[in-house]
Amino acid sequence: MTQGHDALPQPSPPAPGVLRIRVDSTFGAMEEVKLRVSPELAQPLLAQLQEDGSDASFGAEFSLDLGELTIIAVMMRDSGAWMTLRTAIEKYADRHKGKQVRLEHGNSVVDIQGYGAKDVERLMKTAHDDFTEHARKWQEMNQRMGPPPDGDSEG
User: Fold this and answer.
1) Residue 88, Cβ density class (10 Å: 0-12 exposed, 13-18 middle, ≥19 buried)
2) SS3 49
């Protein structure tokens, strides 16, 4: 079951008071990952991402799902962007050890309250692999469709 914003199943809802960072790869031509985060995490996490050199900003999405999560869009132009994303999440978690923060991707969940870096690394690797697979499928679909017929324009 999805909530309309990704093709991955959703994990069970967190306990009250648990802050969330959900990593969703976007199916499509855009090279971005959407982090869906609890509003109180949004500004500090965005600041950490930007400090670490990520091309990140608040994002928006047109849908009927008006969930409680704020979107941070992170451009993923190369594999170094994944390392920067993981490092920023780990730095954030390290500075906020007293808070319960849940990192999610698909059905995978990591509790990063006094987290294990290996668990965060494993979840981020899964997210990276999913992102790469979505990009490959998108590229194959575009190649099968071929270029637009003469006279058609995208303007």
Assistant:
1) buried
2) helix
> pTM, whole model, 2 decimals?
0.73
Task: Determine contact, residues 22/35, Cβ cutoff 8 Å.
Answer: yes
Q: Tell me: the pLDDT tens digits for 84-109? A: 888 888 888 777 777 788 888 888 88
CB within 8 Å of 20: residues ≥ 6 apart: 14, 36, 37, 38, 41, 69, 101, 102, 104
The contacts of residue 99 (CB under 8 Å, 6+ apart) are 19, 113
**56-58: strand order across its sheet:** 56-58, 70-75, 32-37, 19-25, 101-105, 108-111
Q: Which DSSP letter does residue 148 get?
A: P
